[in-house]
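[SOLVED] Need 3D model of a two-part complex

Original post:
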Amino acid sequence: MLKYINLILFIVSVIVAEVLELLVPDSPLHKSSRYPYFALLLLGILIVYLLRVAVNRVKTGSFNLYNAPLLTGVVTFLNILNLVTAKFAFLPTLYFPTLDAVFGTLVEDRELILKCIGYSMGILSSGVGGGLILGFFTGLGAGFNKKIAYWINPVIRILGPIPATAWIPIMLIIFPTSRSASAFIIGISVWFPVTVLTSSGISNVKNSYLEVAATLGSSELEKIFKVAVPAAMPSIFIGLFNGLCASFVALMTAEMIGAKYGMGWYVNWQKEMMCYANLYAGLIVIAVLFFIVITLLFKVRDKVLLWQKGVIKW
Amino acid sequence: MVNGIRFENVEKIFYTPSGEEVHALNGVDLEIEEGDFVCFIGPSGCGKSTLLRILAGLDTPTKGSVYLGGDLVTKPGHDRGLVFQDPNLFPWLNIRDNVAFALKTRHIYKENKAAVGEMIDMVGLTGFEKSYPHQLSGGMCQRAAIARALVGKPKALLLDEPLGALDAFTRMNMQDELLRIHKKEKMTMVMVTHDVDEAVYLANKIVVMSARPAKIEEIINVTLSYPRDRNNSEFISYRSRILKVLDFAGKEKEPEYNI
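Solution:
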């Protein structure tokens, strides 16, 4: 019985939240929503989690309730939020809409949101891709060749620390479209950390690795791409991680200032329209989106840096 | 003498940051015949590692030249396998890929695939092909490093204190391993060590070197047959002879305590 206490607590928390949501009427200060989105969401969380536990039980033969306390916390938090906003309207209703309205936006405004996601991801991928490739090769050059380092390092030191967002005003003038300007700014924000950490990773490669490769008959190119680059990979990934985080900032800022689509634009526009429910929905979408991107990076890293398990962790 | 090694008046001068000259090697002349197992022994600073690095092509002599099988040594190449004290396995490759690297980097892997497995088998690492270097012990890593140096069939295997970091038991074990490989592959082996016993146990030619000035003091041919007995009286006399040349054994010492 004690073993399942976490699961029971979770189910109880959902039931309590559902009962309060369905029995206590919303404050008349709020507009009513078309569907009971919050109640459906809670039900959805409950069903999906129970299914997952059941499937896991069949697959592995044991109950895995690791996430139950966390979900109990989430449901309780939403429950309190629901009481404070929708039920009793303790907070100004304009800025703190009901959860029904927030989750409802995700459903009712999905077409525009999807379009904005596509737009943002398009810019992000071209910007990050370009910045990564450029940063990798400048870092490689600076790490390997003293002459390249002589010319590149001052550029990195002077231009690198300028926050990518500070370029926005000038880039919006230089580039023909706000889209290409945003991509370029994201590129800059990724380029800097990738260059610095690639170059430092390459110059920190143990010289004896290169000597071993030389005695095994490796050509210069083989030494660079088969020895130095894999050895520097952990450092390169840290650069990419930093760059990706910086690129989120650059993307949002660029879209808020100059774009006509995208999640940054969406959030900013909804604020100007005083649609705060849509604004919160936009923030949820942004959080999920960037969570997915970072998770993807970690998945790739775990694959590429499999050999590091037990050596370095971050 | 097809694949013999010849050092001709090899001199190496390093410069300290303050511009002082340091003579790491003074006019070394040495002939090594194909199939020899040669040990360089001497105190630290006698230039034995420098001599090996020049042979490997990783350092260039200030004066003089080195020939392998009649060809002047100018840069590192796959005809001389090198094993360092630190195994220096690539941590991002598993054991099999580390060994295979020697073939892949020369683009001769496809036609020699079988050699990788054979070599891993010979150094006794069968079953550990998929392990990563950090999962293995120091001795096992050094075996893998030897396999990697040998798989490309070099003319000579150069060993720079390869057993220096191993514990005494693993060390003796690996010495026998080296002798077995030497016998099987019939290749020239040149090893730097500062362990006199190791030198007498392994080599048929011991090059005793001295520091300041860094030069060859004496070349001793060891005529004992393999496998050698470390307690054999001849073994012991070789040892004391080397120690005498190195100027350790002969010294009259003050007793540390009196009764």
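Edit: Residues 79 and 154 of chain B are 4 Å apart (CA to CA).
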